[in-house]
Amino acid sequence: MSINKESDIAANLQIGPTSQGMVRIYVEGEGLELPLDFEPEEAEEIAEEIRAAAARARALGKR
After folding, report:
1. CA gap 8, 6 in Å, rounded
2. Is the pLDDT of residue 57 over 80?
3. What is d(CA 37, CA 40) in angstroms, rounded to the nearest whole number?
4. CA separation, residue 26 to residues 56, 57, 61 (Å)
5. In whole angstroms, what is the distance from residue 43 CA to residue 41 CA?
6. N or C: which end of the chain has fewer CB within 10 A?
7. What are the residues facing 32 on neighbouring strands?
8. Is the pLDDT of residue 1 over 80?
């Protein structure tokens, strides 16, 4: 599936720290539980990528 392809799949997203000092992104959907753990530095890189993508999406929406 391409990142630009629409989907009817619904999922819940939770983000928080673990007791082991990791950052967990937890995705839950129909028949799916996906815990993704990242070092804090990796999580900050992901956050920067999300912010950059939001800025690009906002710019595309203003066209």
Report:
1. 7
2. yes
3. 9
4. 25, 24, 28
5. 5
6. C
7. 29
8. no
| Side-chain half-sphere CA neighbours of 56 within 13 A | 6
pLDDT digits over 6-35, tens only?
888 899 999 999 999 999 999 999 999 999
- Provide the token pair at 13: 């997203």
Nearest to 42 by CA among 60, 22, 57: 22
* Residues whose CB is less than 8 angstroms from the CB of residue 16 and which lie 6 or more positions away in sequence, other chains included: 23, 24, 26
> Over 70: is that where the pLDDT of 58 sits?
yes
Q: Which amino acid is at 33?
A: E
Instruction: Categorize the per-residue pLDDT at 38 as very low, low, confident or very high, splitting at 50, 70 and 90.
Output: very high
Q: Are strands 32-38 and 11-17 parallel, antiparallel or unpaired?
A: unpaired
